[in-house]
């Protein structure tokens, strides 16, 4: 069974209230970042594109950003593509393997609710670091 992120926020159960509170905190963090008007954002474990859609609607600075969603599950990538989020592309990606295809490409990298489902977290973190533009690799 695949984890569809948008389902985590529907309803009023205790579990879903915690998710909603975390989502509110994520929005506040994005607002505090003071992002530049353009950039490239990669979300690893993008699920159905929920975070891209939700945050782009609420964070004005993301309007001109290029968004790149990565997930292992084809079914989730298809749901994400159905959202038709402007300036967004989705790709299959296995976080368990080191992949240099996207090396030094992104200004911003996120991974929401995914790393705990990854079998090889060390490779996943290596992928995140590699994907960051050199200025962030410090």
Number of helices, counting only DSSP H or I runs of 4 residues or more: 5
CATH fold descriptor: Rossmann fold
Helix content: 25-40%
**Radius of gyration from the CA trace?**
15 Å
Range of strand content: 5-15%
Query: What is the arithmetic mean of pLDDT?
Result: 91
Overall 3D shape: globular
Say which CATH homologous superfamily is assigned: Vaccinia Virus protein VP39
Short précis:
The chain is of the alpha/beta class. 38% of the residues lie in helices and 14% in strands. The N and C termini lie far apart (38 Å).
Explain the overall architecture.
This protein is an alpha/beta fold and about 140 residues long. The protein has a single domain (about 5-135), classed as Rossmann fold. It has five helices and four strands, in the order H-E-H-E-H-E-E-H-H. It has a four-stranded parallel sheet with strand order 3-2-1-4, with helices on one face. Strand 2 (about 65-70), helix 3 (about 75-80) and strand 3 form a beta-alpha-beta unit. The longest helix has 20 residues, at about 15-35. It starts with 13 loop residues before the first helix and ends with a helix.
